[in-house]
Amino acid sequence: MNYQWYPGHMTKAKRMMEENIKLIDLIIEVVDARIPLASRNPDIDQLGRNKARLILLNKSDLADEKENEKWSRYFQEQGAFAVKINARTGAGVKNVLPVILESCKEKLERDRKRGIKNRPIRAMVVGIPNVGKSTFINAFAGKACTKTGNKPGVTKGKQWIRINKNVELLDTPGILWPKFEDQAIGAKLAMTGSIRDEILNLEELSLELLGYLHGSYEGILESRYGITESQDRLAMLEQIARNRNCIQRGNELDYAKAANILLEEFRNGKIGRITLERAEIQEYAEQKEE
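Structure for Ribosome biogenesis GTPase A, as requested:
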């Protein structure tokens, strides 16, 4: 399956970010804690050179807690600040403001020496579609100041949001990059819901997810679905279809329905707390490159 999605409004969103980057002191990047690298837009690194960086590991309640800790350390070693949050429930959001102030400590000190008082920190909030960017802003601001939705592409234009006298946020539409060089990145984005289901082959995607879960979280599928894991992926999907009564007319198995059940239950955490990317694997890959 070839994963591509780059609507015209995303080109416009990137241009808007390029125009506004000079106005801001800090980039707050919201990522999906289950796919901390795949849910980062590499364009942001280019756009945000010489800016303070804060990575918010959102949906951390759905991700493996051990991996959350490893990814927090990984980003800190990369020179960014990192905070684990669950924007939907508000968990961890109260920890963000102190980290914003800490990350811009040098900027605040420079302002003080120049006699500049009461100028708020201006932070740009960025993230690819459906990582929970607008939900975080609403939780952080304490009010529904942006539209939110559980589908990609809800935020259409920029908005300035005043949090308090110290911090202002610039909200931006979620943007994906024009081409996934690694199709595995596209698969991870599709699994977590950052690419619209309507353009995907969900049965094929579910088979990829089954393969990963069997290889990395042995026993989790057997526990949730009562299936035998020592069989191929298609046989596992077939068994899920039987056990969940996914039957069509003529007593045929409904693979599409079984695939939908698997993906939906992965996305909402019913299968368990799962991370699709491992920090130590990324660190090893970077060491090899060096």
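Residues 151-156 have pLDDT under 50 and may be disordered.
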